[in-house]
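Data availability (excerpt). The following record was deposited with the supplementary files.
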Amino acid sequence: MSRLSDHAVDRSRRNSFDAIAEQYAEARPAYPSSVFDLISDRVPPPARVLEVGPGPGVATLPLAERGYEVVGVELGTNLARVARRRLAGFPSVHIVHADFQEWEPVPGSFDLVLAASAWHWIDPSIGYARAQAALRSGGYLVLVANHPRPGRLGSAQRRFWDATDPIYRRYAPALVARRGWHPTRLPDLRPEMRRSAFQDVERIVIRWRLTFASEAYVRLLDTYSDHRTLPDSQRQRLLGAIRGLADDRFGGNVRREYDTVVHLARAKR
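Predicted structure:
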């Protein structure tokens, strides 16, 4: 499915996060600090940031802690509310409840436009032009997304990943194809960024890992849009089977490995 059809067809998935805003804030892992080191190297604080789809503020908080001024444009009413609460201690952060694709910033008023796990919901024919318009000359667009990977052959993470395949095939066969992973399938947005008149385009992949208790892991899965839009009884059977697998065969812990893909590009001068 193309990114454009993701936007056009899967509106229910795009909107599914708002009903679980609190759970999303608790369950989703933070991004590696090296992501924000990359940003700081190119756009040092203090600088003015437009964040597209901040959700409950997973990436907004480390930006605020580093001294950035952030305007976050969030589609979800509940997500915006949670973000405002979590960031109440940072007067330089403002969360706007709006659709980025319709919101009108002051042209050239931002040093950085950031989207963390949100850009794939944006129609690229709209998003890049809006980012260009919002940025000052030479400002940066940064797109960040976490992608789970199965891990090395023989590793505990790989054994768990492989052991969940029969569970998905039994309880949620429509999701099996979405679980496929290969390094060449990691997104590479450089061509479309260049076509959209961005320059100095970079793509950096950061590999890291995190260990979850079984309950925390299924709560994480329960925040994914493709899982959220399953019928409730089907989703609960799927998550219950995965929790049981983790408890019975993996000591109640799940090690998850990620590739975080960071795209950085400069607005045309």
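Summary of structural features: Residues 1-9 have pLDDT under 50 and may be disordered.
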